[in-house]
Here is the input.
Amino acid sequence: MSEMAQFMYTLKVTRLGQLTEGPSAEEQAIVARHFAYLQDLTDKGVAILVGRTQTADADTFGIVVFQAASEAEAQEIMTHDPAVKNGVMRARLFPFRIALMQSAQHL
Here is the structure.
């Protein structure tokens, strides 16, 4: 098996109203599946860090820092995210490497 590499994808909502007015019932259901998907990746040791800015405007974004064996696998992980797959969020993939990280005991 090849060594795992780190990647990051950014997420932005496709409809700003999700943040400013609130999500529709369908968007809310998709975002719940998105969260469960990311929770599963975290539980499996694939996702390293998942979070989002605490704003509700056009600059709001989320990030997923994770490990994959290849860029193709990273792309697959990103495109299988329910929010991306269902068009509620758009994503952009980047090769990434964590340089420094605070230990969990300090968070």
